[in-house]
Amino acid sequence: MDPKVIFIAGGGTGGHIYPGIAIARALLAKDSQLQLRFVGTKTGLENKIVPREGFALDLIQGGKLNFSGGISEKIKTLCKIPVGLLQSVALIWKHKPSFVLGVGGYASGPFVLAAAILGVPTAIWEPNAHPGMANRWLSRFVNRCYVVFSQSKAQLKNRQILQFGMPVRKAIEEAKKAARADANFHLLSFGGSQGSRAISTALSEAIVQGGAWTNDIKIVHQIGSVDFEKMKAKYAGHENVVTPFEFIYDMENYYSWADLVVVRGGASTITELAAFGVVPIIIPLPAADNHQQKNAESLVSAEAGIVLPQENLTPQKLIEEIQRLRNDPARLKKMSENILRFFQPHAAEKIATDILEQVGNT
Q1: How many domains, the chain?
Q2: Are 160 and 207 members of one domain?
Q3: Residues 9 and 106 reside in one and the same domain
Q4: Can you give the C-alpha Rg of the chain in angstroms?
Q5: CATH number for position 301
Q6: Would you put residue 303 in left (φ > 0), alpha (ψ -120 to 50) or beta?
Q7: Same-domain status, 162 and 280
Q8: Within this chain, do residues 350 and 278 fall inside the same structural domain, yes or no?
Q9: What b-and-e string marks burial along 112-149, b requiring 16 or more CB atoms within 10 Å of the CB?
């Protein structure tokens, strides 16, 4: 008997790809005879990440509709969609999958829709409190939806919505806070794998201007490749306060080290912080659907984080927010306890179990 095939469609960013990989590994852990395949587009990070993780990757055409570009770019994207659908149908006929999971990104929409039309059992995974346009639309056609935030349920049109949480890698799943090795306050800042110029500019100017706030504090700043050399030069002479990195590969060690973080509002970031009980000051990435703003608001409403809109981000405002929490350890401790509740362990395993129930592998 040929092995059962499961497709995971989507990508573009690590926030889509890595949870998909975590689910794929959980599926294989439960049934090593499964054949896992990913579907993406040629422009996404999946082209670098998925093959390196040892999974097959098929490419189709797709693009983003919900963006602020010109009409010509939107027309180009619209033209890609029917091509992507035909490519999806061809892949489904060729591999005859037992299940298709969409994890968001340009390839997810056309491939999941084609699978649903062809009668293949399907599901979407939605990481954000405010679902994207594609998943809101696709939810009408799939068999079930997996979500991270309870707030997203009301916006998805499906009778089978299961809240299992965010699939994370094993190092995060087994999170433990490190024992304190010094008396300094530890601040971690990053803006995703590519960095955030807005955050880096405000933080670096705050550090360079100095003042009492830089006393007894150690800062780790992941900058990203684009601005790393410029920021590294800017930090010359401030090595006693800040350690700059282009990229941090062992992020779990720095989550464990940190007392407070300054970050964007991606769902994966929030989940990983929650696993360690680290309180964030979130500067949401301005976007058409404001999904990072909605993610941040879910923490604020639970007294588990602070939101600082990018339009209000200045070096002085950032210092004020850091110092307000740093100087109120009781509040910081309470917020740390609150954010822990946002982490749901074993999400990848729970999703894998549910998928295998659909394909008859229990």
Answers
A1: 2
A2: no
A3: yes
A4: 21
A5: 3.40.50.2000
A6: left
A7: no
A8: no
A9: bbbbbeeebbbbbbbbbbbbbebbbebbeebbbbbbbb
The structure tokens listed for 283 are 């500067």
Nearest Cα residue to 335 out of 271, 297, 278, 266: 278
Bridge partner residues of 73 (DSSP) = none
SS3 content of the chain, % helix, strand, coil (to 5): 45, 15, 40
Token duo for residue 189: 């800042």
Q: What H or E segment, with its residue span, contains residue 242?
A: strand 242-245
Closest CA to 203 of 219, 225, 215: 219
Cα 319–Cα 325–Cα 330 angle in degrees, nearest 5: 165
* Residue whose pair of structure tokens reads 């955030």 in the numeric block: 196
- Residue 246 shares a structural domain with residue 324: yes
- Burial of 194 per CB tally in 10 Å (0-12, 13-18, 19+): middle
The residue range of the domain holding 152 is 5-166+345-359
| CA separation for the pair 310, 305 (Å, rounded) | 16
For 316, the enclosing helix (H) or strand (E) is helix 315-326
User: In terms of Cα–Cα distance, which of 235, 299, 241, 237 is closest to 267?
Assistant: 299
Q: Do 189 and 145 lie in a common domain?
A: no
For the chain, 362 residues long, the average pLDDT of each consecutive 10-residue run is 91 86 95 96 89 95 62 66 92 97 92 97 93 91 94 94 91 80 93 82 97 97 92 96 91 95 93 95 87 92 97 98 98 97 93 94 48
114: left (phi over 0), alpha (psi -120 to 50) or beta: alpha
CB atoms within 10 A of CB 56: 14
Packed helices 291-301 and 267-276: angle between N→C axes, nearest 10 degrees: 30
Residues 6+ apart with CB under 8 A from 343: 165, 166, 271, 274, 275
The reported pTM is: 0.80
Domain identity same for 177 and 135: no
Residues 141 and 114 in one domain: yes
Q: How far apart are CA 347 and CA 197, in angstroms?
A: 32
Q: Can you read off the two tokens belonging to residue 70?
A: 């010109």
